[in-house]
Specification:
alpha/beta, TIM Barrel, 2 domains, 6-stranded parallel beta sheet
Length: about 260
């Protein structure tokens, strides 16, 4: 992998208490040991605890933080911008702004994302997970400076990479890392036939893990592959047996 991103949506960060969250950061930094960059998901309901998490990640040795604005009440654009300015003022690390309305309930438009990039010094990149390819094109249109954006929508990956995405920040490499890297390499090398072949191989698996919920399906998939990482945190439940069998077949088809 080119980087490790713990404590994102797949990492169940929303279901961890603070000592558990801190422990994931510490263990990740220790195990990765500087071999690749670490982008820690530091999101929380409150600005104050998001800052606490971001500062902890910085102190532990992370290279960047990924922040998804989450709130019980929908946030206005003004509140979103204030949230990120406060986080940026509190840390020296680069910030990846994470847009995933399916999990956060908050949808940041390309205009808001570019505003954050241009007005918060350490906002350096965006993870766009809406699954709307037009947004990625719009990000390129709105700024003269190159805004690195990463695809977070698994089924959209081929289109996103072709649209200029800097990479693919996703749960899929937890299950089939080599195929994901090969797909990225094929697009980078403009080997369109190979990229399409790899994408067609991966697509049923990508669609399945998204439809079934990433923490649930990835944990089940890891168990199928021989890595017992336990059940998802309630209220999430383990994958149903019939779906687990389907997942096992999909994993076998991508070997």
């Amino acid at each position: 992998m080119h980087a490790i991103a713990p404590l994102g949506s797949t990492g169940e960060s929303a279901y961890l208490n603070e000592p558990e969250w801190d422990s994931v950061v510490d263990i990740t930094v220790d195990v990765v040991a500087g071999r690749v960059p670490i982008v820690v998901g530091a999101s929380d309901l409150t600005t104050a605890n998001t800052i606490r998490r971001a500062q902890y990640a910085q102190q532990a040795g992370a290279d960047a933080v990924m922040v998804l604005p989450v709130s019980y009440w929908p946030l206005s654009d003004r509140e979103i911008k204030s949230h990120f300015r406060s986080i940026g003022d509190a840390i020296d690390l680069s910030i990846m702004v994470y847009n995933n309305p399916a999990t956060s309930g908050i949808d940041m438009t390309p205009e808001v994302l570019v505003d954050l990039f241009e007005n918060v010094d350490n906002v350096k990149m965006v993870k766009e997970s809406t699954g709307d390819i037009t947004r990625m094109h719009r990000l390129n249109e709105l700024t003269d400076r190159q805004l690195p954006f990463f695809n977070g929508s698994n089924p959209l990956v081929l289109q996103a990479l072709r649209a200029g995405a800097s990479g693919w920040c996703t749960a899929a490499p937890c299950l089939r890392p080599k195929l994901c890297l090969q797909l990225l390499e094929a697009v980078t090398n403009s080997d369109h036939e190979r990229a399409r072949e790899l994408y067609d191989t991966l697509r049923p698996l990508l669609e399945f893990i998204v439809a079934g919920g990433l923490p649930v399906t990835v944990k089940a998939g890891l168990d199928v592959l021989g890595f017992n990482v336990g059940d998802p945190r309630t209220p999430l439940l383990p994958l149903a047996q019939s779906d687990r069998e389907t997942l096992a077949d999909l994993l076998s088809a991508t070997m």
